[in-house]
Please model this.
Amino acid sequence: MLEKIKELTENINQYQIDSKEQLEQFRLEYISKKGKISELFENFKEISGEQKKLIGQELNKLKQFAQEKFEAFSTELSKKEVLIKEDIDYTLPPPPAMLGSRHPLTVVREKIIYVFERMGFNLSDGPEIEDDWHNFTALNFPHNHPAREMQDTFFIEKNPDITLRTHTSSVQIRVMENSTPPIRTLSPGRVYRNEAISARAHCVFHQIEGLYVDKSVSFADLKNTLYVFAKEMFGKDTKIRLRPSYFPFTEPSAEMDVSCLICKGKGCNVCKYSGWVEIGGAGMVDPNVLENCNINSEQYTGYAFGMGIERITMLIYGIKDLRLFTENDVRFLRQFKAIE
Ligand code: DAH
Model:
């Protein structure tokens, strides 16, 4: 019996464990009720005589030893597990921080603002929910005039006096009403039209409006400002073209084209083989509009222009579908960086 105890003590002493499975194996072999030590206790019952006391003591020692060993093994194992979990190399450089990128419309809007700010324009803002006066009437759209139908307007239900603004020209009125010339201001913002959504049209889009009112502002000033803008924005070889047009709030009015960036004016499918792409409208502020805002039209003249930010962005980046701007697909959005 003593031999057997010695042998088991020896075995336990040499026991190594590396895993939970091995720990369980150890428990079954030595600690459990069906294990080797319990078996010895069974046998011990049959022993009698002088040796009983000694064997009993040794057997208890063995039991205690096995128990201590088991506990030591389990703490060792849990320490190892923590170490594995915390296996961090603090000297490694961190993974690169994923910075968001700016929306292409923001990138382009900021560049447009930058160009005009250097020509002395400040920024102004107006509400997207507008009244008829600022969106139409003050801009020389008479009531029931067919020109109102040029802009498919969203009206607030049951109150045709309130609209979602159809253009940023409404901000011109607000600025002129609230300040005195000289005025040189730029108004970027969101506008709404009741249009079916497609690759080329959307019911929500962005415009940027420019207004300059002072003594003896001329059409030549307008033309030169737009020319300088086009070169700064699209590159120094860019040309502009102004075509006669009609807007109720300007007289004379023009549609503004730039030479096609894609084919450099040679003709491609972006410019529909004309060599020119329309980016907005412009003209001399109609004297009626100045008067509507209490500006003396005998004393002051002004020019105004309005451009589509989506249109310009599509041109710069060769984007073919307007819907991409609002779909929020990060694979699309990640591609844009600020324009130098
Ligand atoms: N508001 C016009 C539109 O939405 C664009 C426009 C044309 C603005 C001529 C102007 C302008 O300031 O002078 O189609």
Notes: Residues 51-85 form the longest helix (35 residues). The chain has a mean pLDDT of 91.
